[in-house]
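Researcher: Sequence recovery benchmark, item below. Answer with residues only.
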């Protein structure tokens, strides 16, 4: 036969389940902490937890296709990441302080038509980028904005002054 697969070798676990669990846990929690520290616009328009989840699942799946000698090792890591993501989401729902730990609060960048430059500087948002976001929402004049915020996933929400 040209293609001979040893199923025992394919599903044999070389490292312990505990070590696979610890590696997956350290990666998930470590990246979650790092994503919390960087400005929210850096991660794009996905919530930090969603980005971490997708990144680690893809990485674990690719390793199980090639780098690991066993599909089971990759599967253990993927299950660990899914479990952490589920647990963090569950805890965030029931305990607001957990949500505050893993998600950025919104940052106001315009208040009553005035740009809050300190907050923009903190998020590395230039005035040209802000004006571009306002134009995308059909607003040409900053003085017509009651409130604009950078949300936790990096999007900019705008509330116009009532006419």
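Model:
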């Amino acid at each position: 036969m040209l293609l001979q697969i040893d199923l025992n070798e394919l599903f044999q676990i070389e490292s312990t389940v505990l070590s696979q669990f610890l590696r997956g846990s350290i990666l998930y929690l470590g990246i979650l902490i790092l994503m919390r520290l960087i400005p929210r616009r850096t991660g794009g328009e996905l919530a930090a937890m969603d980005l971490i989840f997708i990144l680690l699942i893809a990485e674990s799946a690719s390793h199980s296709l090639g780098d690991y000698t066993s599909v089971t090792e990759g599967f253990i890591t993927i299950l660990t990441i899914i479990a952490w993501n589920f647990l963090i989401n569950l805890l965030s729902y029931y305990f607001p302080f957990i949500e505050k730990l893993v998600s950025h609060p919104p940052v106001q960048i315009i208040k009553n038509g005035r740009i809050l430059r300190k907050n923009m500087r903190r998020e590395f948002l230039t005035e040209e980028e802000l004006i571009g976001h306002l134009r995308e929402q059909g607003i040409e004049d900053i003085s017509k904005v009651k409130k604009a915020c950078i949300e936790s996933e990096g999007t900019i929400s705008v509330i116009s002054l009532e006419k």
